[in-house]
Amino acid sequence: EARVDGIEHCTCLIENGIDVPDRLLERLAERQIAVCPTLGKASGHEPPAVIRELLERAGITWEVRQRLMARMHEAGVRLVAGADTGISPGKPHGLVARAVADFVHGGIPTAAALATATSTAAEATGLGREKGRLRAGFDADVLIVDGDPFVDIAALTRVSAVFANGQRVDLNG
Question: pTM for the complete prediction?
Fold first, then answer.
């Protein structure tokens, strides 16, 4: 009802877990409100104690959050990859590939999960007419990875080259 364009997290946290009513999913889908669940986390890092305690008390695991995103996808909600990067040691920059992988691990088809970081993200941010697709007239933003993400989604973390607007980006600088 607030006429928002996007929602971060969208976990619908209640005292003993998560409760996302079907009607909310329907409204998010019909209004094409972008939902960024901020998945993706660095290996070996736990959330801050206060967050960890809240999640444990409510019985919310990473797998529960992944399955919730699959439910949102099935309902037609516009999902966008993001990871709250830079807010803590457990959320350093560069986690979007892991956020996409979390979608896949939750049950979202790989092509749809990849779109959360490309075409769907571009559309949600108002850049869909110039970014997010490999198409004539669009900016030539390309990520080249070692492997096939349709076979192994972790290939997204093995970056071989990056091109922004057609120019190679120095990954060491």
Answer: 0.91
